[in-house]
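Re: protoporphyrin IX containing FE structure - here you go.
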Amino acid sequence: MSKRKPGFGKQLADLHRWNGWIVLILTISGLLLAWDVVRGWLNGEARNPIKQLHIILGVLSGVLILLYVPLMKRHLKQIRQRPKQKGNLSFVMVLLVGWFLSGIVLWQIRRFPPEWANGALIVHDLLTWIGVPYIIYHSVTRIRWMKKPERRSIKTFEDHTDNSIASTVAAHSNREFSEPTPWINRKQFLKWSLGAALAVAAAPSFFRWLTTSTGGALTSTPGGMKDVSDNANLMIPDPTPLPDSVNVVGGGAKGYFRVYTVTPLPTFDSKTWSFTIDGLVDKPSLWNWEQFIGMARTVQVSDFHCVTGWSVYKNTWEGIPLSTLLRQAGLKSNARFVKFYSGDEVYTDTLTLEQANMDDVMVAVLHDGKPIHRDYGGPVRLIVPQMYAYKSVKWLDRIELIDKDHIGYWEVRGYDTDAWVKT
Ligand code: HEM
Ligand code: HEM
């Protein structure tokens, strides 16, 4: 029994404290990352620093797990008579290791196929919805003021000998026997109230998440897009879908789109909407809505991958291949890059001519046979299936041919200029 190195209890307590602070900041930064409002903060500048902080602390949390491994055997022995603490320990270890592994995949997203990122995001979110309320419950109920005054001096992380564990356990049981046992005591009451409050607070968001992250299986709209009947755009008439598009050749989109925007969602009206191609072209053009939807379209089925981890598979997009538009406009010999403008007047991005001429790059007007909802970039959005979706400019209304590279909105704010999805 006296074989133990001195300071074991302090080591554990230090690890517990460091871990507590790191988990607190990870939780706050993680929730900020998930909260779409934050994207617009500081004109989009806030997101990348928050993400960097989250990743650095995430890696540090992995270091703490490693530091705990050599202490684990002895810690387990110390708490072998405390089933609740053992349960707590196993659950927290599953949470921490799960967050760490899924977090690494989300961080190194471009090294993994999109299915991995998708799974990792679901795991990461699920652990957050379950783990954070649990940890809040743990922290608050273990805080000293929740304990009866006579128990406040018992320091659980101290270097217990088996005797002291025994006497702690005895103190516990003596107290329980010597007190009259009301139906529910003060501490139980506080614990139950807190547990219920956390459950009530977390449950609605959890179920909303569940119904939207499970491949749209529990949502009524196919592909997890809102119904176009509540589309805030006033684009008249609707484009008439091609037969392939109506029959959704791919069977319809699988997955759920999350709506991200850095600006208030813009609204468009066919009376004022226009589409332009200009810059280094022989024939600059301007279309109104009716002219635009009068152009010949094609149909493609492709997957859609967001760099934050989620994907929507088998989307049936109908639109004009970008290469067709470029060919019709006739490029001047000094044209090198294609710059895309969003109708929100903030967002831009670029492709090289070679990328822009890929077969599947499309200026899309229909998704699964329906007009594209305003929230998902309609009436017209770019689709670049082989790259992360920050390249697929929403509310597209202008294409300009330029001779020097232009760094897009998110790339200026820390996203990789190389947006290729690993296949
Ligand atoms: C207490 C532990 C943690 C909590 C509560 C947490 C929470 C979150 C949440 C809520 C998100 C947003 C997910 C979404 O968009 O739906 C997120 C994203 C992310 N987390 Fe964590 N996380 C934790 C630990 C970690 C760890 C250990 C890593 C590892 C390096 C990590 C790396 C990431 C990355 C890379 C993202 C994606 C950021 C983005 O592009 O949106 N997280 N986390
Ligand atoms: C994410 C993981 C965890 C967090 C954020 C966390 C956080 C906290 C907080 C804030 C307190 C109150 C501290 C105070 O009043 O001084 C606490 C107390 C406590 N925690 Fe944790 N904890 C975590 C994991 C664990 C694990 C895995 C165990 C061990 C099985 C554990 C055992 C305890 C004990 C025994 C106390 C009471 C401490 C005392 O009275 O000195 N915790 N925890």
